[in-house]
Amino acid sequence: MPALPSSPAEPTVNHLTNGHLPTALRPFLHGALFHGLRKNNGDLRPTAVGCTYRRLVAKDCLRPYISRLYELLQPSQVGVGTLRGSEAAVHATCSFMAQTQGEKVLLKLDVRNAFNSIRLNTVLQAAQTHLPEIYPFIWDCYSSKSSLFHGDFCFHSATGVQQGGPPGPALFALAIHGVTSEVKSDLNVWYLGDDCIGGDPQTVLSKAAFIRNGLSSVGLEINNSKCELLIVNHTTSQERSQTIKLLQDVFPSISITAPNIWQLLGSPLHQDSAPLHLEAKTKMLDNIIGNLELIEPHQAFFVLKNVSQSPNSLLTAKCTMLQVQRGTEGVRHSHKNQHGKNMQCVFWRRKLVKSIPTNQTCRPGPSFRGRPVC
Fold first, then answer.
1. Are 65 and 339 in contact (CB under 8 A)?
2. Cα-based angle 265, 307, 320 (whole degrees, multiple of 5)
3. Which residue has the higher pLDDT, 179 or 246?
């Protein structure tokens, strides 16, 4: 167990890491505040916010073993231990699409309510096997029901890991590692519970059946309505129709997406989908900018800075050949309206758009360096 610095909280930290936390404190330190966030389609997304002290201890305990997780989970799982894993998944998929010959398809699988549904006995067994040094802490967190507090009500959860907690993604990835590592196809990329399989239709179908059976053994279920089929390369329309029928027999409600809306992890996969994707991002930015006049300038700048540098925005810029001059100019124009004058060049470059390219077109790759705005 990594040594932690001495502090007034040291007794509590030691109880947490050694798995000896008093029973009376477990509902509060291992529980969470429960919220229901509204989705775009009107449904509710259950969200649990865990205890800060437990999250800090978990982060410190897990840090020494990140390299071990990387070596174990690579190359199929890029959601844990992989630097810029979402970019790696998008670039790998784009490379597969560019080099394919013959009949090739991409199948995107979505796991229904993945983090909240995985069986805890599988999680604990995986943690004991691969992370024995911190297993007492993990056992203390997940060996009993978690308490979820919402106002005056208290719910109890007997399945799943906390998605926002530091060990949650790692434990989830370890629990399904037996499935993700056994899929042999031309392309097999996982970002936690999102999978993308590529290859000829028969191989993809057989691997999808294997994944469905393997995930069901750990309490997970494929959400057919959110699965997507991408027809990458077919020689005739008859072959295309046969492939669609073949996949729809197994996944009845699967979506057959057109190239102009292909995307993975929020980033477009096809050159035809990039303009529409950028247009949607630009409209979202215009909507945000239009509402910034309703709040104080300092608060508006804080919102603007974080929106322009959000992981989703940077992933889109880094993974596609886009020109985002319009977006950056819109952000700059908004700041001019807020403060009545242009920002100083150095401040603008360093604080707001240091990670966003402007007039030059980005080449696909793991990183880029944009030209100065001023």
1. no
2. 40
3. 179
What is the residue-wise DSSP string for 243-286?
HHHHHHHHSTT-EE--GGG-EETTEE-STTHHHHHHHHHHHHHH
5: preceding bond cis by omega (within 30 degrees): no
Residue 91 banded pLDDT, cuts 50, 70, 90: confident
Is 180 within 8 Å of 190 (Cβ atoms)? yes
Q: Find out whether 51 and 25 touch, Cβ atoms under 8 Å.
A: no
Token pair of 206 as six digits: 């057989």
Most confident of 164-173, 281-290, 321-330: 164-173
Two structure tokens written together for 286: 């215009």
What pLDDT score does 30 carry?
84
Taking CA atoms, 320 is separated from 1, 88, 265, 268, in Å, by 42, 12, 13, 7
Question: How far is it, in rounded angstroms, from Cα 249 to Cα 204?
Answer: 14
**Residue 207: helix, strand or coil by DSSP?**
helix
Contacts of 150-157 with CB under 8 Å at 24 or more apart are: 150/33, 150/34, 150/35, 154/27, 155/34, 157/116
The single-letter code of the amino acid at 366 is P
pTM assigned to the model: 0.75
Which neighbouring-strand residues pair with 33? 49, 149
Consecutive H or E run containing 153: strand 153-157
Contact 61, 137 (CB under 8 A): yes
Helix axes 237-250, 201-216, angle to 10 degrees: 10
Residues with Cβ < 8 Å from 64, sequence gap 6 or more? Answer: 2
Strand 44-50 relative to strand 194-199, pairing:
unpaired
Residue type, 342: N
Give me the chain's average pLDDT, please.
Answer: 77
Q: Mean per-residue pLDDT for 228-237? A: 80
